[in-house]
Design brief:
By secondary structure, this protein is an alpha+beta fold. Helices cover 40% and strands 17% of the residues. The longest helix is centred in the first third of the chain and has 34 residues. It is a multi-pass membrane protein.
């Protein structure tokens, strides 16, 4: 009991100025952290940000966030300000008179009941408005893209006349044209999320969900599966690439072509093609213009044009591709891509893998 009284006495003797000075060192790291979030390279350091909206839907969501944030800040400042005033006004004074006790204040109780109700009502009105904005009907000129969530990668399908163009992990869209995504899953739950484009939308087995938005500016926008879906959920990334209308048309025309044939039959590319189209790869992948008809893994027709591999977790270069082919499960746990090199039975040699890498990178 004596120690408690001693501590209480020490607190009473601590002057406000001394308390402020003693608390400043603890506040400095917090202030530096807040300042670091205000730099110009925000998009570089935080590519999956919601604070640089690129569609009307994303702008509406950010506006709603700012509304609730500033209302919360005002309420917090008023609440803590009132608490501070009460603590100062009715603080203990040695030898001073005891504060008058009272119970109940009808006006105050009505005010603190109606004011929160009014704040919640304002938030509710604008939230309902935002819900309707995030669920628009697709216009007649909307580009339809079928999105299928896999474990753990993304497949994107474009219907062009009687043909279907299929790619993986990079969704390409035109600027200024509405885009309707038809979201499906052929396994467990997933969630499509490109923060600068729109909010999260779930991919549910045996159900087709829709997401409609119109990109404003060309660029590369980072995305991610936002629903826990297994071992490599955190490694199920994607990129949304927004083109100018002409750029998108050129991309679509190139994707519709079959794979380019090697010109030199004795080259590393030609040897790689034989290993890919007549080996174990043919059972799981498709390359248009070859006998490959497997549908377990991504379509590889223009694999060399993709910026990343393994669902966006590695840059698409020779070294990374070699590591991926040699032992994919070591890179992405639970991957259905088997280990093809190393100490497994019937393993490919490093030289054979290099030929396969040369062929895949030639598929432009």
């Amino acid at each position: 009991m004596k120690s408690v009284l001693t501590a209480a006495g020490s607190l009473r003797r601590l002057r406000p100025g001394r308390a402020l000075r003693s608390g400043l060192p603890a506040l400095l790291p917090v202030l530096l952290l807040l300042a670091s979030a205000c730099g110009d390279d925000h998009l570089t350091r935080f590519p999956q940000t919601t604070f640089a909206p690129a569609t009307e839907m994303a702008s509406e969501q950010m506006w709603l966030f700012h509304l609730t944030m500033w209302m919360g800040i005002v309420v917090g400042l008023l609440t803590f300000g009132l608490m501070g005033w009460i603590l100062w006004k009715f603080r203990y004074r040695p030898g001073g008179p005891e504060a008058q006790q009272f119970h109940g204040n009808t006006t105050l109780e009505i005010a603190w009941t109606l004011l929160p109700a009014l704040i919640v009502a304002v938030i509710a009105v604008f939230t309902v408005r935002a819900i309707f904005i995030t669920q628009p009907e697709p216009p007649a000129n909307a580009l339809n893209v079928r999105v299928i969530g896999k474990q753990w990668w993304w497949e994107f399908q474009y219907a062009v006349g009687r043909d279907t163009i299929i790619t993986a992990n990079e969704i390409h869209v035109p600027v200024g044209q509405p885009v309707q995504l038809l979201l499906e899953s052929d396994n467990v739950l997933h969630s499509f999320w490109v923060p600068q484009m729109a909010g999260k939308r779930d991919l549910i087995t045996n159900r087709v969900n829709r997401l409609v938005f119109t990109p404003r500016e060309p660029g590369v926008y980072m995305g991610q599966c936002a629903e826990f879906c297994g071992d490599s959920h955190a490694l199920m990334k994607m990129r949304l690439i927004a083109h100018t209308p002409d750029g998108f048309r050129q991309w679509l025309e190139n994707e519709a072509r079959p794979a380019v044939e090697p010109t030199d039959s004795a080259s590393a590319v030609a040897v790689g093609k034989k290993l890919v189209t007549q080996g174990v790869c043919a059972g799981c992948h498709v390359i248009k213009g070859t006998p490959m008809v497997g549908r377990t893994g991504p379509v590889l027709t223009h694999f060399g044009r993709r910026r990343t591999l393994a669902a966006g977790i590695m840059e698409n270069n020779a070294a990374n591709l070699h590591s991926w082919i040699r032992n994919a499960p070591a890179v992405k746990p639970g991957s259905k891509m088997p280990q093809l090199g190393g100490d497994v039975q019937n393993a490919l040699s490093d030289e054979q893998i290099s030929y396969i890498v040369a062929y895949l990178q030639s598929l432009q």
